């Protein structure tokens, strides 16, 4: 049986390596979809990145394959939509989002 540890996920997602996307994303986003547009946080996990996107002025929706992680996301970010998806599925019509962001999708070190 696989267990998902939301606390461990948050520690990894907000740890020393998070600066890689937090450092570069704001400058890149000045050139691409401007604030006010919609971001899909694909594999949103516990929703830890939602405040980052909201702080930049984006409308955010999160999707993930793990119900346990979505439950954590909804608890910590109750005003944002989070949806369950099947693995590798993006069940939204084309052109609904201006940006799709994914991080920690291929390797999930918090699974044990």
From TrEMBL:
Methyltransferase type domain location: 40-106
InterPro entries from the UniProt entry: Methyltransf_11, SAM-dependent_MTases_sf
A Pfam family of this chain: Methyltransf_11
Gene Ontology MF annotations: S-adenosylmethionine-dependent methyltransferase activity
Protein name, UniProt field: Methyltransferase type 11 domain-containing protein
Species this protein is from: Endozoicomonas numazuensis
């Amino acid at each position: 049986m696989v267990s998902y540890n939301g606390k461990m996920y948050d520690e990894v997602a907000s740890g020393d390596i998070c600066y890689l996307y937090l450092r570069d994303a704001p400058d890149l986003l000045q050139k691409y979809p401007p604030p006010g547009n919609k971001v899909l946080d694909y594999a949103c996990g516990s929703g830890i990145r939602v405040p980052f996107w909201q702080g930049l002025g984006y409308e955010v929706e999160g999707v993930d394959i793990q119900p346990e992680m979505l439950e954590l996301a909804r608890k910590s970010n109750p005003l944002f939509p989070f949806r369950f998806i099947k693995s590798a599925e993006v069940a939204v019509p084309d052109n609904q989002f201006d940006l799709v962001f994914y991080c920690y999708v291929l390797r999930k070190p918090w699974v044990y």
